Structure prediction request, 63 residues.
Amino acid sequence: MSGSDKVEAKAEQAKGHVKETVGSAVGNESLEAEGRGDQAKGDVREAGEKAKDAVKSVFKHKD
Prediction:
C-alpha cells in the first residue's frame, strides 16, 4: 500500500466517522448515513490497496 493511498483511505474513514458522529449527535439521519458510507468507501479502498500489496509481494518473492 503506497503511503498516499493509505493516507487517503484513512482520511476517508476518519471523515466518515466524524460525519456519522455529528449526524447522530444532532439527529440528522442522512448525515449519519453519509458518514457510514464514507467509512465504507475508505474500508474498500484500504482493502483494495492491501490486496494489491499482497499480489506484488507474491510476485516479488517468486523470482
Summary: The CA atoms of residues 28 and 35 lie 11 Å apart. The first helix runs from residue 3 to 26. Helices lie at 3-26, 29-62. The chain is about 90% helix and 0% strand.
